[in-house]
Amino acid sequence: MAKPKKHVFVCTQSRPPGHPRGSCGGNGSMAVFQEFLQQFEKRGLWGRYAVTGSGCIGPCGNGPSVLVYPEGVMYGAVSKEDVAAIIDEHLLGDKPVERLKVPAEVWG
Amino acid sequence: MAKPKKHVFVCTQSRPPGHPRGSCGGNGSMAVFQEFLQQFEKRGLWGRYAVTGSGCIGPCGNGPSVLVYPEGVMYGAVSKEDVAAIIDEHLLGDKPVERLKVPAEVWG
């Protein structure tokens, strides 16, 4: 694949139920990842943009976590319904979605 | 975790033996990932730098693939022995390791 303009990483780490750190997988990150894949397919974004599942990128307690490079913007508690906004506003519009960003003390 | 100065993604995707696309996992990427983890631990790099295992980042045939953001530099056919150079030259020295970069027609 060509070097993408934006590269989205969706944490798909899972931990056993009841694990004290929780996990993005346990909080529904696979549905978020699948939604990215479907929208990439439907909108023809592959090539210019990329999305990849990843291991732990912290912060686990606020998952599902989604990280977008090259800006290094971390989104927390992302739901399937938020995916279109990340694509429209950040990937295509080049403006990070402020309401979904994790607090600066967590990732700043 | 705090936002890192450099974020290393090591593809740990595996495919069944004989799969036509091959895979980084099949080419020994777990040893590369482990080496990053050990050197991060030994050198106290966590916090300022991050390393994360990831799904497929392409190009599978030239794995193990290692991708460093925010620059978006893609390294191919990385061995355990190359990890120290990536840390010393690129992460700490801010100069990508030219000899390990994939060709521009693959990722450029």
The gist of it:
2 copies of one chain form a homodimer. Chain A is an alpha+beta fold. Helix content of chain A is 23%, strand content 18%.
Can you characterise this structure?
Two copies of one chain form a homodimer. Chain A has a four-stranded mixed beta sheet, covered by helices on one side. The first copy, chain A, has helices at residues 29-43, 83-92; strands spanning 6-11, 49-54, 66-69, 73-75. The radius of gyration of chain A is 13 Å and the shape is globular. By secondary structure, chain A is an alpha+beta fold. Chain A has two helices and four strands; from the N terminus they run βαβββα. In chain A, β3 (66-69) and β4 (73-75) form a beta hairpin. The interface between A and B is medium-sized, with 24 and 24 residues.
Which helices and strands, and how do they pair?
The structure is a homodimer of 108-residue chains.
Chain A: E1 6-11, H1 29-43, E2 49-54, E3 66-69, E4 73-75, H2 83-92
Parallel strand pairs in A: 1-2
Antiparallel strand pairs in A: 1-3, 3-4
Which key phrases capture this entry?
homodimer, about 110 residues, alpha+beta, globular
Structural class of chain A: alpha+beta
Our Rg estimate of chain A from Cα atoms comes to 13 Å
Multimerization status: homodimer
Which strand order spans the largest sheet of chain A, edge to edge or round the barrel?
A: 2-1-3-4
Poorly predicted parts of chain A: none
Portion of residues in beta strands of chain A equals: 15-25%
The backbone outline of chain A, from C-alpha atoms, is: globular
Number of strands of chain A: 4
The proportion of residues forming helix of chain A, as a percent range, comes to 10-25%
Q: How far apart, in Å, are the first and last alpha carbons of chain A?
A: 30 Å
Average predicted confidence as pLDDT of chain A: 94
Largest sheet of chain A: 4 strands, mixed
State the helix count of chain A: 2
The topology string of helices and strands of chain A comes to EHEEEH
Most residues in contact, chain pair and counts: A-B, 24 and 24 residues
